[in-house]
Amino acid sequence: MHGIFLFSSFTFQVLSKEDLKGTRIEHGFKRAFMSLFGQDNDTFTSMMLLNVDQLQQQLDKDEFQEDGFMAAFWVINKQFQKFIDSKFTLDYDSQMTHKYFVEYIRIEVKQFRETLLQHMGNVKKSVAERTCHKRLYVTPSSNGHWIAQRN
Q1: Using CA atoms, how far apart are residues 36 and 41, in angstroms rounded to an integer?
Q2: Residue 28 C-beta-side C-alpha neighbours within 13 Å
Q3: Pairing of β 136-140 and β 146-150
Q4: Per its UniProt entry, which superkingdom is the organism in (predicted)?
Q5: Where are the chain's structural domains?
Q6: What is the rounded distance in angstroms from the CA atom of residue 35 to the CA atom of residue 85?
Q7: Is residue 17 within 8 Å of 79, Cβ to Cβ?
Q8: Are the C-beta atoms of residues 8 and 49 closer than 8 Å to each other?
Q9: Which distant-in-sequence residues (6+ apart) come within 8 Å of 134 by Cβ?
């Protein structure tokens, strides 16, 4: 599914910067990431890739099950929830967290959050469309009219 690919590739691309390995920016980002996401970058990325794989497996099943997909989707959603809910204040720690996060990913935190939410919304929308398509499809009748039928 296109939405899942965009979601996972966006997140992975943003979180893995080879050109910053071993730098002050990477060290600061790791602290900022822990503060924003509640776990280290490597663990988070490994879990995210595993969760996205499980989500894809749900979609690839011959008999699509909305409940199974939504359960897998909510695991990913929960993984990002601490970041989505995070707020930056004017204290020094928050400012440094923001600074290192932006220096490392090269995207403003607000833009990263909005893009992440957009990708997650696109995945949910794709599933809703697939679920609707599964439930209802249209076929031509013998008299030339189209008939809506349940799948």
Answers
A1: 10
A2: 17
A3: antiparallel
A4: Eukaryota
A5: 2-150
A6: 12
A7: no
A8: yes
A9: 64, 151
pTM equals 0.68
**Helix, coil or strand: residue 70:** helix
Task: State the Cα angle at 118 between 112 and 120, rounded to 5°.
Answer: 100
Q: What is the pLDDT of residue 61?
A: 76
How far, in Å, are 4, 65, 109, 140 from residue 120 at the CA level? 8, 19, 16, 35
Model pLDDT for residues 87-140, shown as the tens digit of each residue:
767 788 888 988 998 999 888 888 988 888 888 888 888 777 777 766 555 455
Matching residue, tokens 């894809």: 56
Whether 64 and 130 have beta carbons less than 8 Å apart is answered as yes
